[in-house]
Amino acid sequence: MPVKEIQSMVDIDGLLDIAVGFEIRALPTFHAYKNGERIEAMVGADRAGLEAVIQNSVARA
Q1: pLDDT digit string (tens) for 1-13?
Q2: CA-CA distance, 24 to 21, in Å (whole number)?
Q3: Closest by CA position to 39, among listed 22, 50, 53
Q4: Which DSSP category does 7 fall into?
Q5: What per-residue confidence (pLDDT) applies to 60?
């Protein structure tokens, strides 16, 4: 089954309600979702950590 990926970037200064709704407290923040439910999250600029989030998300797809 192919994995579908959608990436978004949000200007949280201009869209504070979105930042609050998605519990973004620091930048950068990365979230992975499956069927509308958050399955992975990571805060910070850590390449290895982001790669792990992606790999874990794909494995759960």
Answers
A1: 677 788 888 888 8
A2: 8
A3: 53
A4: -
A5: 87
